[in-house]
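In response to reviewer comment 3 from the previous cycle, which asked for concrete evidence that the modeling workflow produces usable outputs, we include below a single protein chain processed end to end. The sequence was submitted unchanged, and the resulting structure tokens are shown without manual editing.
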Amino acid sequence: MKKGWKIFWHTLFWLSTTAGLIFLAHGAEIIPLRTLLVAFGVFGIVNIGLFYVSYLYLLPRHFGQRSKSYWMFFLNVLICLLVVGVIKYAITAQFWDLLHPRFKANKPMPKEQLMFFSYIFRSFFTSAIFILFSLVLRFTEDWFSNERVQRNLENERLTAELAFLKSQINPHFLFNSLNSIYSLAYQKSDTTPDAILKLSEIMRYMLYDCNDSKVDLAKEITYLQNYIDLQKIRFGKNAYIELDVNGQVLTQRIAPLLLIPFIENAFKHGVANDPAHPIKMIINVAEKHLSFYMENKKHLMNRDAIGGIGLSNVRRRLDLLYPGNYQLEIHDDADTYTCELSLIL
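The workflow returned the following structure tokens.
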């Protein structure tokens, strides 16, 4: 809270509290208003002053981050309570007649009953309430401040971790794509220029459109389609890949590069040239819900190699970005590999 607002709320609290107490005490018009003004005004200034001596000076000094001196705090509090008791005694003696007016049916309290040590003893407990208020307020503020600092630190840690996880995707994807293009170039395929063009479009999306925490779902699906087209160029006429998008893709947004690890693994470890077992990908989109299903036949040489950086990466990103808002089921059978992701956008 800014300093100006803090002063405003403190001032408003004390004025409201004092005015409320005077109104309640004066409501029946038994106690004269002048008496109430002295009682709540003069003594209020003393008590509020004690509150801020503790709140602004004693507590920060003896319970600060650099030093904690509990005994010195209680010793200083004791001294302040005694000093305030003497001040209150002097005020009571000076304004005795005003603080103890003569009523119609009762005689005023004789001034001789004002005993110094007895008054100091009673004042000690009354003033200690304001010290207690300062303790409660200071420790409450410190608790909320520490909670806010911890939340900020946690957010910074999660942001750094997400940035690291996201940075892993780009080299991983680029490595796989360059391998595919290298294979085309090695075969002197006529589709090599088209593959390079597709890769440049994909890299442009990854470099310039994926800097935000969320991207348009439509752009993300276009990115996935470009990646699949790149793989189709690699496999040529022997590529059997199915991608179905159902539902209306409107203004939904999704964390970028979230689905690509599944598709990458399907091409890396699966079979893409078997017409009886094509790589199947289905995306169903509702208003605030997305489901992604993928199935592929496992390659005989890579049956034990499913996983790697991509899937562990996407699991961690889902935990950080969609905690409690996703379900991921993976079935790794002897011959087939399927995964189903249900996500609340």
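The mean pLDDT is 78. We consider this sufficient to address the reviewer's concern, and the full set will be provided in the supplementary archive.
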